[in-house]
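Please check this protein record:
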Amino acid sequence: MDRAFSLDEMHDAALAAIAAFPAAFRAAASEVNLQVVDWPDDDMLAELGMDDPLDLTGLYDGIPLTEKSVFDQPMGPDTVWLFRQPILEEWRDRGDIALRDLVAHVVVHEFAHHFGWSDEDIAVIDRWWE
């Protein structure tokens, strides 16, 4: 069984997952800020209507590529957030997957939102939870 990752190790695992994207997606992903922190902040949870921080393993904060316009004034860089403690809790609860695989799954899911996919779109091809 894997051991828990530090923040830096989880960041490195996320970068490795991004490096494995197909070239076209990898290029678009390079424009996104990647942040790995222990917990989502209270504002994030409130905006999503969530009470339990363990329910949020990752978050895409930005305007999906399919909705961007050259007329938009960017307020900041698009950001993918990974939340280390909720990811570690899910990994421990599941007990049947490698931590690096779970991190890659969360990374792919959040970047799919950047590419314009909805949760419903992702669910059509994502067999992770079956």
In short: The chain has six helices and three strands. The first strand starts at residue 33 and ends at 37. Residues 7-63+77-125 form a domain with the Zincin-like fold (CATH 3.30.2010.20).
